[in-house]
């Protein structure tokens, strides 16, 4: 059935009545609403929990690409998720509201693209800014965005909202049969990033502390993100319903938290490495001032200084 060929009020009323008798779907819809609410609470809790870390490790950075991307992910993305969650909780009989809401879901695509860009920078860093890897990833990312935007636009135009009225909160949507293809492009790109990261794992023991943090965090994120994308793709295929509910908001919330946490971990590693270097320099100055001649090898262990403490 093509929802775009069906006519407004009669079709909506018929679908709403069918949904009202579909107990299983209503239970699933309620479950997803609780999951959405829990995702928002988790996002706010993580922001409150890590605000002091953000001030200490991120606010002092110069305004360049990584810091800008961090703040977009940290503040713009949650605002878009709040709007998406609000639309999911209101009761409406307006087709206009549902038509607007289907486009309001686009910031979720933007948020995931921002996170992918952050991850791409991390993978390039793992390869020590290799030019071939950088060019390949830039080309692949650009191609992914073109395909993703094109397919998402087609599916959004072909999607028709069903206002809940007194039956359920928010809107549900009758989507084209190929809606799952929307998420194939980001899945493919994140699999490429994951494979490139895994190819470097064999040299993990040779990495510096910073590269180990980059590799560990990237692999953890990819496993979670790819799992969520696979669920989003295959869940619609498992149901014969015209309408379907997808966990887009929880996926975006976890991506937002994951990207922020990776940035914090990297900054912690950089600050710790810098402090260790500072300790060695202070210690060398102290030895020199005492008039001692000491041959320092690469395996020299810095002394513990009372007035210097690790972050």
Question: Which SSEs are present, and which pair or pack?
Answer:
Blueprint: H1 8-20, H2 23-57, H3 65-89, H4 95-104, H5 106-126, H6 131-157, E1 160-163, E2 171-174, H7 184-201, H8 209-237, E3 243-244, H9 248-289
Antiparallel strand pairs: 1-2, 2-3
Helix pairs in contact: 2-3, 2-9, 3-5, 3-9, 5-6, 5-7, 5-8, 5-9, 6-7, 7-8, 8-9
Low-confidence parts:
1-6, 274-311
Could you tell me the mean pLDDT?
75
User: What pattern of helices and strands is seen along the backbone?
Assistant: HHHHHHEEHHEH
* Class computed from helices, strands and strand pairing: mainly alpha
Number of E strands = 3
Largest sheet: 3 strands, antiparallel
What do you see in this structure?
- By secondary structure, the protein is mainly alpha-helical.
- It has nine helices and three strands.
- It has helices at residues 8-20, 23-57, 65-89, 95-104, 106-126, 131-157, 184-201, 209-237, 248-289; strands at residues 160-163, 171-174, 243-244.
- It has a three-stranded antiparallel β-sheet, with helices on both faces.
- A hairpin with a 7-residue loop joins β1 (160-163) and β2.
- α3 (65-89) packs antiparallel against α5 and α5 runs parallel beside α9 (248-289).
- The radius of gyration is 25 Å and the shape is elongated.
- It starts with 7 loop residues before the first helix and ends in a 22-residue tail after the last helix.
């Amino acid at each position: 059935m093509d929802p775009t060929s069906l006519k407004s009020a009669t079709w909506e009323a018929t679908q709403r009545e069918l949904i009202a008798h579909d107990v299983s779907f209503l239970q699933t819809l309620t479950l997803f609403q609780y999951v959405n609410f829990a995702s928002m609470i988790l996002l706010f809790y993580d922001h409150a929990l890590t605000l002091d870390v953000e001030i200490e490790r991120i606010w002092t950075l110069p305004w360049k690409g990584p810091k800008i991307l961090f703040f977009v992910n940290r503040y713009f993305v949650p605002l878009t998720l709040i709007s998406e969650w609000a639309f999911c909780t209101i009761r409406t009989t307006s087709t206009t509201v549902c038509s607007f809401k289907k486009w309001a879901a686009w910031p979720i695509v933007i948020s995931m693209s921002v996170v992918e860009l952050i991850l791409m920078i991390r993978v390039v860093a793992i390869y020590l800014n290799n030019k071939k890897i950088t060019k390949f990833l830039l080309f692949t990312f650009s191609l992914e965005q073109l395909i993703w935007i094109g397919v998402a636009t087609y599916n959004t135009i072909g999607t028709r909202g069903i206002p809940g009225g007194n039956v359920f909160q928010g809107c549900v949507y009758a989507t084209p049969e190929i809606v799952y293809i929307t998420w194939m492009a980001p899945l493919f790109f994140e699999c490429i990033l994951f494979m490139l990261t895994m190819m470097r794992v064999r040299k993990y023991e040779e990495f510096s502390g910073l590269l180990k943090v980059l590799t560990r965090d990237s692999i953890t994120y990819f496993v979670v993100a790819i799992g969520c994308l696979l669920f989003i793709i295959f869940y619609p295929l498992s149901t014969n319903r015209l309408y379907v509910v997808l966990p887009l908001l929880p996926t975006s919330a976890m991506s937002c938290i994951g990207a922020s946490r990776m940035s914090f971990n990297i900054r912690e590693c950089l600050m710790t490495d810098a402090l260790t270097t500072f300790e060695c320099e202070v210690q060398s100055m102290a030895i020199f001032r005492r008039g001692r001649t000491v041959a320092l090898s690469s395996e020299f262990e810095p002394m513990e200084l009372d007035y210097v403490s690790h972050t």
